Q: What sequence folds into this?
């Protein structure tokens, strides 16, 4: 399962279309802001049922999010022992080297510039073969 953390409906639509062009081996859940992403990953509130809301195998994370910025979410993910093995791919409209460097320093495994393409998403999905999926 893939968690897409994205507040822009157009970008969610594009990502859903891109995912349709890839082999149908992954489902995707969308969190619309940083707070919802943390709630999902913590399994709190409406996300407490881990059968319905499993720990993702991969996280696509936008940087410019309401409530919690993407860098804050990324730092939080990497402070959680149970989530350190989940690869995070930043999906951002920023091509700034500073943003890429900060993301990598905070633990991102990939940095993709929007809009996503089937090729860039497939490249990020290859991260799954490099990391054992969480139990």
A:
């Amino acid at each position: 399962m893939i968690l897409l953390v994205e507040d822009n409906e157009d970008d969610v639509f594009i990502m859903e279309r891109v995912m349709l062009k890839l082999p149908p081996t992954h489902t995707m859940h969308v969190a619309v802001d940083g707070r919802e992403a943390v709630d999902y990953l913590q399994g709190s509130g409406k996300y407490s049922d881990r059968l319905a809301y499993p720990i993702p195998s991969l996280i696509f994370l936008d940087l410019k999010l309401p409530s919690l910025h993407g860098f804050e979410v990324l730092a939080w993910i990497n402070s959680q022992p149970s989530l350190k093995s989940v690869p995070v791919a930043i999906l951002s409209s920023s091509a700034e080297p500073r943003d890429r460097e900060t993301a990598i320093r905070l633990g991102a495994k990939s940095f993709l510039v929007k809009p996503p393409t089937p090729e860039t998403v497939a490249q990020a999905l290859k991260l799954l073969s490099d990391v054992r999926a969480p139990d």
User: Anything to note?
Assistant: The two ends are 12 Å apart (CA to CA). The chain has six helices and five strands.
